[in-house]
Amino acid sequence: LLFTFTIKNGNQLGERLQCLRQGLQKLRQRRRDSGRYRESEWAKVEAAAIRIEIKRGKSGEWHPHAHALVLRDRRTMFNLQEMQKDWREVVGSGNLDVQLTKSGAASINHNTPVTAFPSLLTKDCLECFKYITKFEEASAEDLVEIHRKTFRQHMLMNWGAFNGVKEQLAGGEDFRPGGPFFNIIAERNQQGIYDIKQGRAA
Known about the structure:
The chain is an alpha+beta fold. Helices cover 28% and strands 24% of the residues. The chain is built from four helices and seven strands; from the N terminus they run E-H-E-E-H-E-H-H-E-E-E. The strands form two sheets. It has a five-stranded antiparallel β-sheet. A two-stranded antiparallel sheet has the order 6-7. Helix 1 crosses helix 2. The longest helix is centred in the first third of the chain and has 21 residues, at 13-33. The protein is globular and about 45 Å long. The relative contact order is 0.17.
């Protein structure tokens, strides 16, 4: 499933980003604590990969939000109303939007071989991790502010089975400093989908 976590817009980007991050951290803690203090729907999350995105809302205020690729066991179902309630409890006001993934890979669990992930998750990852902000739509002043508030800050996070997963390079690529690497170009087409093109080796 693809989750979108939103919070109330605001004039202070740093404060809104802090609210969003703290809300996600509290949900992660509820997932970990489930069964010890109280049951939580978030305990059904097998794995989640989350990206924070920043833009201006229609009101002109900052609208940071998060997109997440969420995996569950195929034998379980989420109670989305309870998940929505939990999210609003930890951030005060906000919304949780849930959509089906493009590849139907929502039932991947800890028994799924890592080698199967690339073919199953490519489309979902492209959708979930497209960008941190739309540079072409932001003013120079906003880009400077985004840089200041996100410098040395993690904009990606993971839960569950995605923790500790190491990159597995295919085809024998060598990404060591000074080694060969490839330029990868992502171009957004008219349908709003990103086409990935591999440039020449450098």
